[in-house]
Structures are given as C-alpha cells and as structure tokens.
Amino acid sequence: MNCEYVKCLEFFSGIGGLHYAFILSEIKGEVVASFDINTVANSVYKHNFGKDPITKGIDSLTIEDIEKYKANCWLISPPCQPYTRGGKSLDDKDQRAKGLLHLIDILPTLSDLPNYIFLENVLNFEKSKCREKLVNQLCLTNYEITECLLTPLQFGIPNDRLRYYLMARKRSNSFELKDIILPHEYLKNATIHQTWPLSSMLKKDYQQENHSEPSDTFLLSTYLEKLNGEEIKKYLVPEKYILKSFNFRFDIVLPTDHKCSCFTKSYGSHHIYSSGSLIQTKNLEFTNYNFEDPSSLLNLELRFFTPEEIARLHAFPLKSQVQKSCDDLLKSNYNGPYLEFPENISIIQKYRMLGNSLNCFVVSKLLRYILFL
Ligand SMILES: C[S@@+](CC[C@H](N)C(=O)[O-])C[C@H]1O[C@@H](n2cnc3c(N)ncnc32)[C@H](O)[C@@H]1O
User: Fold this and answer.
1) Domains of the chain
2) pLDDT tens digits, one per residue of 299-325
3) Cα separation of 91 and 128, whole Å?
4) Pairing relation of β-strands 73-76 and 302-304?
5) What is the pLDDT of residues 171-220, one digit of tens each?
6) Contacting residues for 106 by C-beta, under 8 A, at least 6 apart
7) Do residues 142 and 180 make contact, with C-beta atoms less than 8 angstroms apart?
8) Is the CB of 10 under 6 A from ligand 1?
9) Which letter does DSSP use for residue 127 in this model?
10) Atom of ligand 1 nearest to the CA of 16
11) Which terminus of the chain is more solvent-facing, meaning fewer CB atoms within 10 Å of its CB: N or C?
C-alpha cells in the first residue's frame, strides 16, 4: 500500500461523496479543498465537514487557484447531463462539460502535476469526446490509466448504479520516453473493466484484506427503516402520480428483493418512471402488476425510499446504521464525519443531492485497491 501522504482536491464536491469515500478507503491523507457552485449542497458539506467548499466555477479556476493547495491528488465527479439522453447528450458541446474540459486543459500547465486522478461519471461517458480528451491528455502527460464500469450490485449492495470510473497514476520521471503510450494506441486497445475484482488487479492485497466477500447481495430489508404509520404516510407515492402513469412499467420492489434500481435526482417527484424504485408496503403476495390499469396498483401502498435509506444504499456513513451488510464499511472505531442534513433542507432537496451523488463503498474500494495501491 502506498505510504505517501495524499492531499486531495475534490472537484464538483456536491455533498462530499468522494470525500467520504476517501476517508473510508483509510488512505493516509486529507481533502485539502473542495469546489462546487451549488449553495444548497455546499451547506450540507459545511454542516458535515466543517469547511466551506469554494464556490468559484471550476471552469474559471486559475493555475494559482489550484497550485496553492500543493495537492497531489484530484478527485473529480463532473455533471453527468452531457452524456445522458435526458441531458440531450451534447457531450463536449454542453456548457455543463466546461468545468471538466477546463481541468483537462489546465493539467499540463501546472508546475507539479497531481500523482493521482480519480474520476466518476455515468454510463456513456466511456464513449464520449470528453473521455477521449481526458485520456489523450493523461497519455501525453504520462499517466497510467485504469477504466471500469461497475455497479454496487457487484459489491453485495442491492442497488444498481452502473457508473464509469477512471483511475490515473502519474508515472515516475525515470519512465523512458520510448515507453510512453501514445493516445491513439491507448484508445485503440483500452479495456473498460466490468468485473470486480478487476482482472488487472494485484489481487493479493485485496484478498488478504477481504476474507469475507459477500457471496450474494443483501436483502433490501437490511437497508430499510422501521417507519411508523405517520412516517410511512410522508413517503407514500401520491395516487395522482400512479394514476397518470398509464402503461409505464415503473420499478416496484419488495423488502425481500435483492435489488433496486438507480436513484436519480428526479426521485421523489412525479417522474416515477425510471427515477428509482418504489417499495410495495401492502399485499406483498401480489406481484402480477398490471401497468395498463394503474388504479389496480393503488392498494399496494407504494412508497418512496426515504433519503436515509438511499444514503445507506449509497454507503454514506450515517449515525444510525442498521445494516449488517458491508461489515467493513464502518469499522467499529469509525467516529465520523457522518452524513447529516441540516434542518432547513427539504426532502426533495435531499433526493436531488443524493441522486447526484455516488456509492462511497465502491469508490473507497477503487481508491484503496487501484488508485493508491
Ligand atoms: C454529479 S454532481 C457531483 C456530486 C458529488 N460527487 C456528491 O457526492 O454529491 C456534480 C456537481 O457539480 C457541480 N457543478 C456543476 N458545474 C460546476 C462548475 N462549473 N463549477 C463548480 N461546480 C459545478 C454541481 O453543483 C453538482 O454538485
């Protein structure tokens, strides 16, 4: 395991998913500064980490703004809309890609390039122009790159959230010029790994530390809160949302299931189709759903997952952990920081921020066993 003290810059920090993942990876180091323009997410970040993220747009950061932290690691989770159909798939032409493109441009101009770079994004990023530009720059500046597409289901967590991850390590200066991999060669032969552990991994360290890998994904019930009648009412899906959903096969799950679908930032709103699963709380024996007759679904008392349940599925450290799964997620000596929302944050704002965030457990493993190994 790497012994160097790691000083991270966290770009597009949101509620700090990458910061939690870094802490959970137990790598020696700290996040020295974070950057985000969303004031609501920043207030949550400050509440939990005691430090304000920098609100200057990442697309206008100067070399000095970055160099003054003397960081040797960049953690990056840029907006995903440029690569999604909902966001019109404009890729590098999308305004929301400007921050990432700026970081790619600024990288070779730094006097000290970061030794480590981690990036998280959605499926389809791997086919984008932005990824091509990033990989090009990383090859030209002499980084060794690992890319993968993984879902928490592969880690025993019953939530599907297929995401693209890139890990890049700076090669030492003694690396011979003739051994530099040219961008077009890299792009021609690149493997996007899709299994965990990755086939390229040095598995020895991983196996030594992970004796009890989950053989199966855990039940959803492990992650659910015991809600009383009043609390359940707060999360019931309004009848009008269901009745309007003629022929939309939205995802209904039972507490005994081993999987729920990806929660997006529209979860909890009237977009009940494809924004995340709904839990059936009544008539659990009935699963032959007729989506052509939405009124037949009303007696199932469908409810939204609570923000706390989603945070738990995303493996954020919470004060009230109920799950027995991912035993090594929170070691008994873990004493924070935890994810908590300040009181003024509404439920819909919580859903939005959690939908934008990431799975801290998956990222912590990638940091520990790929980036910093
Ligand atoms: C996919 S989310 C990242 C969420 C984060 N990883 C988390 O765990 O919450 C992208 C974030 O980028 C921020 N953002 C978008 N454009 C930005 C820009 N130009 N400068 C700084 N932050 C930006 C958004 O406010 C949002 O919080």
Assistant:
1) 6-213+358-371 (3.40.50.150), 220-356 (3.90.120.10)
2) 999 999 999 999 999 999 998 765 545
3) 6
4) unpaired
5) 987 666 667 789 999 999 999 999 999 887 766 667 677 655 555 788 99
6) 61, 63, 66
7) yes
8) no
9) G
10) 8
11) N
